[in-house]
Amino acid sequence: MTQTQITSFAHRHVALLAAAIVVLALTAPAQAQDATEGARLYRDTCADCHGRQGEDKALGQSRPLRTLDAETVRETLIARRADPRSMQDRIKAGLTDREVEALAAYVAAFPSP
Ligand code: HEC
């Protein structure tokens, strides 16, 4: 390698590293924010019926949410939002896509029994 080749090699790698740092800096807070949002939403909107750790059968009817995976929670919330039939569906119907994702991740992280 000539000096010029070495310099341009180093520059390219510095640029890549800088790009990677920018990507990390942008995505990490977004993920942290989603986790906080999921926790806050769950506590304020869902915990009364489903239990703080997803341990209750809501109104004696649902499965404990801590036994469900993220996919099931996401699909349930999206389906109820599209066709709300009950009081509890109407509570779910106001959720945005982002809130659904945050809740699905939060609920799936509950320790299952
Ligand atoms: C007023 C009480 C109430 C609130 C508040 C409530 N739910 Fe429910 N939820 C229920 C009941 C009752 C059922 C079972 C009957 C049904 O499926 O609608 C249920 C069912 C579910 C199911 C499907 C469970 C299963 O057995 O398949 C999920 C997932 C769910 N709720 C998530 C949530 C989330 C997330 C929130 C907060 C945004 C929430 N619920 C708020 C009462 C509630």
TrEMBL record:
Top-level taxon of the source organism: Bacteria
Domain Cytochrome c stretches: 33-111
UniProt keyword terms in alphabetical order: Heme, Iron, Metal-binding, Signal
Signal peptide limits: 1-32
Recorded GO MF terms: electron transfer activity; heme binding; metal ion binding
Protein name: C-type cytochrome
Organism listed in the record: Roseospira marina
